[in-house]
């Protein structure tokens, strides 16, 4: 599977979970896990969707195993970070080291993405055929 497809699919799963969490908070009038909801939506939905757009515009990178690893690393870090942040805000402060570890996983994933962006490789250039087509 292409990295972009993986990103878009995981992003949709994350936003469904994030919205369910938001509805749960609103319905229960208990916003204690709001930071977990915000992280889940912004890391899992917004960022992942943006990665997908970047990969989709670079077909060679999109087909690479390393790009898929970046998406999985980011997603795994997001899941663990969300659960740990929610647990901490519900009083389970013992989850602090788990959140710290997950934050390092997410950091590693963004550094890998940064490597894709900064490396002087052909795969870093956008596909010129994927630009905006004028209306007829
Ligand atoms: C069904 C959809 C959603 C519902 C019902 C919902 C509900 C909520 C609720 C109840 C809060 C707590 C507000 C507070 O305590 O002040 C909140 C906060 C937040 N939500 Fe959502 N949300 C939804 C979707 C999203 C999405 C899609 C995103 C991001 C793309 C998002 C990002 C945030 C952020 C960043 C905060 C923290 C705001 C702050 O710091 O004051 N939410 N949401």
TrEMBL record:
Gene3D superfamilies: Cytochrome c oxidase-like, subunit I domain. The keyword Transmembrane applies. It comes from the Bacteria. The chain crosses the membrane at residues 36-55, 71-92, 98-118. Keywords: Membrane, Transmembrane, Transmembrane helix. InterPro entries: Cyt_c_oxase-like_su1_sf. This is Cytochrome-c oxidase. It comes from Microvirga thermotolerans. The lineage of its organism: Bacteria, Pseudomonadati, Pseudomonadota, Alphaproteobacteria, Hyphomicrobiales.
């Amino acid at each position: 599977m292409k990295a972009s497809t993986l990103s878009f699919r995981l992003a949709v799963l994350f936003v469904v979970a994030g919205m369910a969490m938001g509805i749960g908070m609103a319905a229960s009038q208990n916003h204690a896990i709001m930071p977990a909801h915000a992280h889940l939506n912004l890391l899992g939905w917004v960022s992942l969707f943006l990665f997908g757009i970047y990969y989709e515009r670079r077909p060679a990178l999109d087909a690479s195993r390393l790009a898929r690893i970046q998406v999985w690393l980011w997603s795994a870090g997001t899941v663990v970070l969300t659960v740990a942040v929610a647990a901490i805000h519900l009083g389970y402060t013992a989850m602090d080291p788990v959140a710290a570890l997950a934050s390092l996983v997410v950091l590693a994933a963004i550094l890998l993405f940064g490597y894709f962006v900064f490396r002087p490789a052909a795969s870093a250039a956008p596909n010129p055929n994927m630009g905006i087509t004028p209306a007829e």
